[in-house]
Amino acid sequence: MATTLLEVGAGLCMVVFPTLTIWLLLGVREPSPEALIVGRVGGAGLVAIGVACWLARDDRSSQSQHGLLWGILIYNIGTCAVLVFAGLMLRMDGVSLWPVVVLHAIMTIWCAANLRVSAANAR
Length: 123
Known about the structure:
By secondary structure, this protein is mainly alpha-helical. The chain contains five helices and no strands.
């Protein structure tokens, strides 16, 4: 449920307001047209992740939910890595960059904990 709300909200922001979202996240005031297109495609992907999580919310302890949790875990780890790289190495940081990094780190821990519980229940 949490992933649904977060990812659909972020995805819709990227699709509808990509310039604002990129500015808040990376501090880039005038992103290129290519960055706006890639941002919108990424936003559509986030909406899709949110929808998949919503549809699987009651599918506890199934193979599908297990696979979805692994996918979300990898997504959160990758997102943390890319955003930390952008902030530290590229010096791109908007007002929301580090809060978003912390949020994805928390979601990474949450996914890992759920996978651990899922594995323990399968035994």
